[in-house]
Amino acid sequence: MFGGVNLELNIDNNRGKHLAVILNNINEGIHVVNEKGETVIYNNKMAELEDMDKESVIGKPLLDVFPSLDEENSTLLRTLHSGEKIENKQQEYLNKYGEKIITINSTIPIKFENGKIWALEVAKDITEIKNLYNKINILQDKLYNNDDFEDDEDSLYTFSDIKGEDPKLKKVIQYANQAAKTDSSILIVGDTGTGKELFAQSIHNASRRREKPFIAQNCAALPENLLEGILFGTRKGGFTGAVNRNGLFEQANGGTLLLDEINSMSPTLQAKLLRVLQTNKVRPVGGDEEIKVDVRIIATTNTPPIKAIRSGDLREDLYYRLAVVLLYLPSLSERKEDIELLSNYFIKKFNRKFATRVKGLSKEVINLFKKYEWPGNVRQLEHVIEGAINILGNDNYIKKEHVESFLIDIEEEKKDSNQKKIQDEGKLPDMIDKYEKEIIINTLDETNWNITKAAEKLGIKRQSLQYRIDKYELK
């Protein structure tokens, strides 16, 4: 028994009680209807997110309790009648008090030996997220339709804001500056904290589009259905509660749209994005007509594209469409001679912000910084400098005692990790083969599987590299 309703399952009373405890203490809403569409399971979380009394739902026909639902827009009833699973579907509906509920649902059929089918739904409440998105969109509409937009554009970065003397960095800046003169799509690859958005803003400000909007959207921040509406817009009637709202493509028309962490976008949405890039047209969610747009796309990823394609996180056809210009940003550990220059830049920045008079880094800290690997790159260095200045007191120079608590002791971690590898991996020939294979794969990835360039980088002949590719069965 659960909530007074027989589950028709082969479980004893004790197991039924345990099941009730489990279902009522998980953080997702659980709703189960029987073959008649009557609720048989309705846990505490579902009652909470729908603001309903369990007694008014359990044992009642679903459509009686939620009058805004029907056979078409109810994911529970669709699964019940079709026997098909529905994954991560956004649903908007009203409870009996007229309050709007927005959830992301996954619905699966429960099939019994006697032929009956029930439907089980797991729901996550995104009402607050959607409300926040609506507020942001309204603010964006006001911002990008405002005649004084140029004033806000001044806050965007330019190439002069990119600090560093490293030859690799200067080469990327040169390529980016050249690419800014065209309208081609750009893919920026770099570890977290290397300044991908800084480069994207600089490209926009150096382009013919600089008088038009620059809009950035993190593709990993929102569920697929919500992100689709944000990018392409929505039209009234497309789904329950939908309103006419321009998407980011329309808002950025004439300007630049930055899609951050493009590899986090679902394959389905990547396919729709690819069509927009091919046709320069968007179809809003729930709309019948396509809208012509003129938007330059800059995308970023912190994963090497070849790896993202192999893992299925990035469609290969979308990669080729985006990577007309491909920029690889060096990590801070690859340009350690810039560390002191960057540190002094950040010291000046925070001196102005906090009205302090820090003169610079002590020699001990400079040496420490150059030995450190900086997993968080330039962004981590900036945060370390800011944290040190906050606790500096009367000292004129940042000393080791001011920064060591902000740095991860990676040398000890490396030592422990290497020791564990030696213990785990055993015989020397096997270890050598494993590391050789790993080095070859990484080098091939870095050169986009250009055999000649990879061989040059490894310092071996092309035939020798090809032999090893065959030996390790690399593809």
Which characteristics define this entry?
475 residues, alpha/beta, Beta-Lactamase, Helicase, Ruva Protein, domain 3, 4 domains, 5-stranded antiparallel beta sheet, 5-stranded parallel beta sheet, 14 strands, globular, disordered N terminus
Detailed description of the structure:
The protein has helices at 13-23, 44-50, 62-65, 75-82, 127-144, 149-153, 167-179, 196-205, 224-232, 248-251, 267-279, 305-310, 316-322, 339-354, 363-371, 377-390, 400-403, 410-425, 428-446, 451-458, 462-471; strands at 29-33, 39-42, 86-94, 100-111, 117-125, 186-189, 214-218, 256-260, 281-282, 291-292, 296-301, 325-328, 360-361, 397-398. The protein is an alpha/beta fold and 475 residues long. The protein has 4 domains: 13-125, PAS domain (Beta-Lactamase); 135-328, P-loop containing nucleotide triphosphate hydrolases (Rossmann fold), CATH 3.40.50.300; 332-408, Helicase, Ruva Protein, domain 3 (Orthogonal Bundle), CATH 1.10.8.60; 411-471, Arc Repressor Mutant, subunit A. The strands form 4 sheets. The chain has a 5-stranded antiparallel beta sheet. Strands 7-8-11-6-12 form a 5-stranded parallel beta sheet. Strands 9-10 form a two-stranded antiparallel ribbon. The longest helix has 19 residues, at 428-446. It starts with 12 loop residues before the first helix and ends with a helix.
